Amino acid sequence: MKGLILSGGKGTRLYPLTYTRAKQLIPVANEPVLFRVIRAIRDAGIHDIGIVVGDTAAEIREAVGDGSRWGVGITYIPQSAPAGLAHAVKESLPFIGDDRFVMFLGDNVIQGGISSLIRQFADSHWNSQIVLTAVNDPRQYGVAELNGDGSIKRLIEKPKEPPSNLALVGIYMFDRHIREAVHAIKPSFRNELEITDAIQWLVDQGHAVHPYIHKGWWIDTGKPGDMLNANDHVLEEVSPRIEGAVDAASKVDFRVTVERGAVIENSVVRGPTIIGEDTVIRDSYIGPFTSIYHHCLIEFSEIEHSIVLENSKILDVPYRIADSIIGRNATITRSEIKPKAIKMNLGDYSQVGIL
Length: 355
Known about the structure:
- This protein is of the alpha/beta class and 355 residues long.
- It folds into 2 domains: 2-234, Spore Coat Polysaccharide Biosynthesis Protein SpsA, Chain A, CATH 3.90.550; 240-333, UDP N-Acetylglucosamine Acyltransferase, domain 1, CATH 2.160.10.
- Helices cover 20% and strands 30% of the residues.
- It is built from 7 helices and 29 strands.
- It has helices at 33-43, 57-64, 85-96, 115-122, 178-184, 195-204, 224-237; strands at 2-7, 27-28, 31-32, 48-53, 73-78, 101-105, 108-110, 128-134, 142-146, 152-157, 166-174, 209-213, 218-220, 245-246, 251-252, 256-258, 263-265, 268-269, 273-275, 280-282, 285-286, 290-292, 297-299, 302-304, 307-308, 313-315, 321-322, 325-326, 331-333.
- The chain has a 7-stranded mixed β-sheet with strand order 5-4-1-6-11-8-12, with helices on both faces.
- The mean pLDDT is 88.
């Protein structure tokens, strides 16, 4: 089998973070989401992976390289336009050939990986397998309606009145028949080639499409709240380790990961939390469910349930920061300039909560 990862989106729901960074490269528990997807496919025994890229292709190429760090081979597939998931498959057909393949959205995080799903599909005679999960608001997703025997009756993209609460997770497995499907369907009202329409074509043509209902957690990291939620779940799965330096005046609990070169001085760190490479935490409090990426500096400040990206500084902040995502090369500090006031420079689509 081959792997196909879709990483062509602009990530508009994550502005301003994604003005200057591909959304798939924003880290969860200090690992870019795209890297987690590559590892999940590799761990399922697949080593030939295509990545569909768009406007952020250069950044993704630079970050991922040839795939050798994961022991896989990477082929980059430029998508000529953001014209839907089925369109991405259509433009990937020269890479896929007649092989079976798994398609994974590059900004999705799922509990448990996909090894068991791949084995199940590889050992079957199914033409396709789709992953479904129950969601609170299915109107935001492709939705599946099942027959009484559990087979697929129909699929609908973002229905106003969903026939069920079973959403397509963003993990799909196909054989060569998907080639016919993506050529047979027409653009939707969004002027996109919808993967739900392609799968529906397979069903209508009598091909075997198996629905797998995922019971664990799954998160589409498309919005800031989703990123924090994914960070929470992944931090709970990390095996804690101390590779950096923690001085005797600090209190670091057993659920904390301190990566190589990090320094913690006179601070309290409560997990699950991860402190990135060459980051310095001094005279501060780091609360649970916090990921501090590499080369950051936090002094005389408090932060919890947050994500801090690389090269950022939080210095002498008099209030505890919580439920926040702080971008790259950012500085948050207290100003001594009079009169006393809150002073800030904010990019487009920024959000700030002040008590």
